[in-house]
Design brief:
By secondary structure, this protein is mainly alpha-helical. It has three helices and four strands, in the order ααββαββ. The strands form two sheets. A two-stranded antiparallel ribbon has the order 1-2. A two-stranded antiparallel sheet has the order 3-4.
């Protein structure tokens, strides 16, 4: 069982997937910081100095030892923007990978026949005369 697990864990696809998950997590942190620290402050400034992470709708005020119940839609806006940026970046990455992996397609096959200009019959490309009308071929 240990050997099977070792064989499974060291296969290329599993290792690649693990690396992808780690890189994806780090990329997600970078994007979150970009959204929270670079994009949202200017947007908040443009709409009146609002910090989106502080935007919330209070459903029930705090009472005694009970904390307030809030609907944090500002954090949701930040998270949704994070998602859009990550999704767009992945789209660009997959698009680039697909373009690099595309081959130019199979080359067009070399024609083996041509049409006789006189009788319109199909004859071999190397023919000097048409086999149907005996016209000399160029």
């Amino acid at each position: 069982m240990l050997n099977e697990f070792k064989k499974f864990a060291l296969r290329g696809n599993v290792v690649d997937m693990g690396v992808g998950i780690i890189i994806g997590g780090a990329f997600g942190k970078i994007v979150s910081s970009f959204v929270n620290d670079v994009i949202m402050p200017p947007i908040g400034l443009l709409i009146g100095g609002v910090d989106f992470s502080d935007l919330a709708l209070t459903l029930r005020a705090a009472t005694g030892t009970n904390p307030a119940v809030t609907l944090n839609y500002g954090l949701f806006v930040n998270t949704a923007l994070d998602f859009v940026i990550v999704a767009f970046a992945l789209f660009l990455l997959i698009r680039a990978i697909n373009r690099l992996s595309q081959t130019g397609g199979a080359p067009a096959p070399v024609p083996t026949t041509k049409e006789c200009p006189e009788c319109s019959m199909s004859i071999p490309v190397k023919a000097r005369r048409c086999g149907y009308c005996t016209t000399v071929q160029p």
